[in-house]
Design brief:
By secondary structure, the protein is an alpha/beta fold. Strands 3-2-1-4-5 form a 5-stranded parallel sheet, with helices on both faces. The chain is built from 14 helices and 5 strands. The chain has 2 domains: 214 residues, Rossmann fold (3-Layer(aba) Sandwich); 81 residues, Tyrosyl-Transfer RNA Synthetase (Orthogonal Bundle). Helix content is 53%, strand content 9%. Adenosine-5'-diphosphate binds next to α1.
């Protein structure tokens, strides 16, 4: 504990600059980024632009996407005076650690990862070397800051486990303890489903709800949400236990409303249209302060870039120190 009552040890997380963030990003990861600022002394959040170069679509509009994402993070409640918020490529030391890590990483382990197999399916014509090394670079991101905790969605669990293994291999190979094995930190909703009610919410599947959308756009998306598939007619009783809208109500609606929907849906007392209208209203109410803060930051883009540039400088100080220790541990002359 520190004098402020916060825990020692660093928190780190990163995400590729994919532009405007969606509810899945928020409920699966960003919510914890914000909350951990009050629990830990050091919180470090990175927009990992080098990772973005592994896929063609995320290579486009890097600057705009970085800016939009930073706006969303700040609007969600990241505080630049407390957290280091920075762009990965501003701290090139991560690429050095990536190279050192690559020497203690069996290739088979990388090609066996479910996330890699999924990428091969998604982009069979662009199975580049960087894609194979993606988890190695991610391990370097985390280890460079000696993070003890990594807030991410459940889809990242294999990568965090992989990071732990790489750190262990490195420390074992060089008989050192300079690097730290991190733990994953999931939210209460570690996998948020898209409006299709089936797949993980994701921009690439276009099943997402953007945090920064207008109330009207948000309402439109909510009305497209798939509910209990067994409930074909308004007069059929529904099952909230299998309904993604109900899952969302539990996060954004009052206890009374959740109770009412739970009861009324089961006896066809409320239809899906009305249920979704209530959710849309509550979601918009919840997002109103976020939208206000976002608009305030957007008044002054230079300030957003200042936050990122300043964060890069602060991150670099830590990174240089770690790299010096790593080189010493390896025994490089
Ligand atoms: P990246 O591939 O760089 O991690 P994403 O936008 O896919 O970028 O994810 C950013 C963060 O949001 C990650 O921590 C990820 O686990 C989390 N996340 C993304 N989509 C979801 C979702 N549908 N449910 C829960 N968490 C999610």
């Amino acid at each position: 504990m520190t004098e402020t009552g916060k825990k020692q040890g660093r928190v780190f997380s990163g995400a590729r600059p994919t532009g405007r963030q969606h509810l899945g990003n928020y409920l699966g990861a960003i919510k914890n980024y914000v909350a951990l600022q009050d629990e830990y002394k050091d919180t470090i959040y990175s927009i990992v632009d080098i990772h973005a170069l592994t896929t063609v679509e995320t290579t486009q509009n890097l600057k705009q996407n970085t800016y939009e994402m930073a706006l969303d993070w700040l609007a969600a409640g990241l505080r630049p005076d407390e957290s280091i918020i920075f762009i990965q490529s501003h701290v090139p030391e991560v690429m050095e650690l990536h190279t050192f890590f690559s020497m203690v990483t069996p290739l088979g382990k990388l090609t066996d990862l479910p996330t890699f197999k999924e990428k091969i399916r998604q982009q069979p014509h662009n199975v580049n070397y960087g894609l194979v090394g993606y988890p190695v670079l991610m391990a370097a991101d985390i280890a460079l800051y000696k993070a003890v905790l990594v807030p991410v969605g459940i889809d990242q669990a294999p990568h965090i486990e992989f990071t732990r293994e790489v750190v262990r291999s490195f420390n074992y190979r060089y008989k050192t303890d300079v690097l730290v094995e991190p733990q994953m930190k999931a939210t209460q909703v570690p996998k948020v489903l898209g409006i299709d009610g089936v797949s993980k919410m994701s921009k690439s599947l276009n099943n997402h709800i953007e945090l920064a959308a207008t109330p009207e756009e948000t309402q439109k998306r909510v009305m497209q949400m798939v509910t209990d598939p067994q409930r074909a007619r308004r007069s059929d009783p529904g099952n909230p236990d299998v309904c993604n809208v109900f899952t969302m109500h539990k996060i954004f609606s009052s206890a009374e409303e959740v109770e009412m929907i739970n009861t009324e849906c089961r006896r066809a007392g409320i239809g899906c249209v009305d249920c979704k209208k209530i959710f849309a209203r509550n979601l918009n109410d919840n997002l109103a302060p976020f939208r206000e803060r976002r608009a305030a930051w957007a008044q002054n883009p230079d300030q957003v870039w200042d936050v990122l540039n300043d964060g890069g400088k602060r991150a670099k100080v830590i990174a240089e120190q770690t790299i010096a220790e790593v080189k010493e541990a390896i025994g490089l002359p």
